[in-house]
Structure formats: C-alpha cells, structure tokens
Amino acid sequence: QVQLVESGGGLVQPGGSLKLSCQASGFTLEHYAVGWFRQTPGRELEMVSCISNLDPSPDYVDSVKGRFAISRDDAKNTAYLQMNNLKTEDTGVYYCTTLWAHTCEVLERMARNADSRSWGRGTQVTVSS
Q1: What pLDDT, in 10s, does the model give residues 50-106?
Q2: CB 122 within 8 A of CB 92
Q3: Rounded Cα gap, residues 73 and 129, in angstroms
Q4: β pairing state of 78-83 and 68-73
Q5: Widest Cα–Cα separation across the chain
Q6: 43-46, Cβ contacts within 8 angstroms, sequence gap of 24 or more
Q7: Would you call 64 helix, strand, or coil by DSSP?
Q8: Is residue 35 within 8 Å of 19, Cβ to Cβ?
Q9: Closest CA to 81 of 58, 98, 63, 103
Q10: pLDDT at residue 120 tops 90
C-alpha cells in the first residue's frame, strides 16, 4: 500500500525543537521530491521545505530559513524535518507529500490544486508558552 505517515508533532514552548518524520511505504521515497507543508489557521497551505535529488539544494520558505532543516534517510525510506527555535507562528498541522513530482518547483505547483485525498493525517505542532 502506497502511504506516507507523518509523526513527531507535539506541544513545545517557544524556542524549543521538534523533529518530524515522514515514513513512506509502498514506493521509494528518494525517487521523488518530498515536501513538508503546513496548514495554519486562517492561512493557506504553504510549503515549508522540500528536498529532491534533481534540485541542487533543499528549499525553505523564508520564515523558517536558518531554523528548519529537511533531510532524508534513504535506507529507512523516511524524510525528516528538524525544527529548531520554534515560534508561535509555526503552529499548525504539518503534512508531507510527494504528489509524484520529481522537483520541488513542480511539487509546490501541484500542491496548490491537490485535493484532500492527496494528503495524509498530518501531525499537529503547537508552539505555546
């Protein structure tokens, strides 16, 4: 069964850290771009970070540059998002997906039109004191 399962979210104080995991099954994750997206109340879904073998370096939205780091362990078929120095505005539900895209640019464009079936359950990140 083709599946992506997110985990690792939780409640953390501002300045804290979390590491999200995206476990793939039924396909080889390294063959595709994998992006982390977040849904924040009152805001549109945004791509926070993305990694692809066809891109020279990972992508990050400006608001997380220097704080978040995306990585992938091909032996475990898992992608990660290390989040440091978390801020209250990082609160939201985080999703990982590939949409079978091979580059981050294509993944971000496809995500704008992806329906609910393209997304897993996500993992909730709450940053609060």
Answers
A1: 999 999 999 999 999 999 999 999 999 999 999 999 999 999 999 999 999 999 999
A2: no
A3: 32
A4: antiparallel
A5: 40
A6: 45/95, 45/111
A7: helix
A8: no
A9: 58
A10: no
